[in-house]
């Protein structure tokens, strides 16, 4: 299956900024990988919560649309809230 997620570039980095994003139902994330500059992004929690339940979400290439560009990525790591059904942060690698 193919997944496409719409994202925005994050300009504010840090713990406080990430907490404000989560409070606004956004998920902070980062895309990094071999020889490329890391990209800090954010997207809506509702865009990711349902598709991350599929097993192929973790093993297939995803497409993230950032400022009109499509970037192929793979999920590297995902941090979830301890007892709520909430995603706190996702690490992607360039595919």
Describe the 3D structure.
This protein is an alpha/beta fold. The chain has a single domain, classed as Beta Barrel (Ribosomal Protein L25, Chain P), CATH 2.40.240.10. The chain has 3 helices and 6 strands, in the order E-H-E-E-H-H-E-E-E. It has helices at residues 15-23, 45-49, 56-59; strands at residues 3-9, 26-33, 36-44, 62-66, 69-80, 87-94. Strand 5 (69-80) and strand 6 (87-94) form a beta hairpin. The longest helix has 9 residues, at 15-23. It is globular and about 30 Å long. The two termini are 16 Å apart.
Strand order of the largest sheet: 1-3-2-6-5-4
**Fraction of helical residues:** 10-25%
CATH architecture descriptor text: Beta Barrel
Uncertain parts: none
Q: What is the class in the CATH system?
A: Mainly Beta
Strand content: over 45%
- Output the CATH topology: Ribosomal Protein L25, Chain P
The quaternary structure here is single chain
The CATH homologous superfamily is termed Ribosomal Protein L25, Chain P
Shape: globular
Q: What is the number of helices?
A: 3
- The separation of the N and C termini measures 16 Å
Domain module tally: 1
Give the ordered list of helices and strands: EHEEHHEEE
Count of distinct strands: 6
Mean pLDDT: 90
**Main pleated-sheet profile:** 6 strands, mixed, barrel
Radius of gyration: 13 Å
Class per helix and strand makeup: alpha/beta
Organism: Shewanella eurypsychrophilus
Family: Belongs to the bacterial ribosomal protein bL25 family.
InterPro entries: Rbsml_bL25/Gln-tRNA_synth_N (IPR020056), Ribosomal_bL25/Gln-tRNA_synth (IPR011035), Ribosomal_bL25_long (IPR001021), Ribosomal_bL25_short (IPR020055), Ribosomal_L25_dom (IPR029751), Ribosomal_uL5_bac-type (IPR020930)
Pfam family, one: Ribosomal_L25p
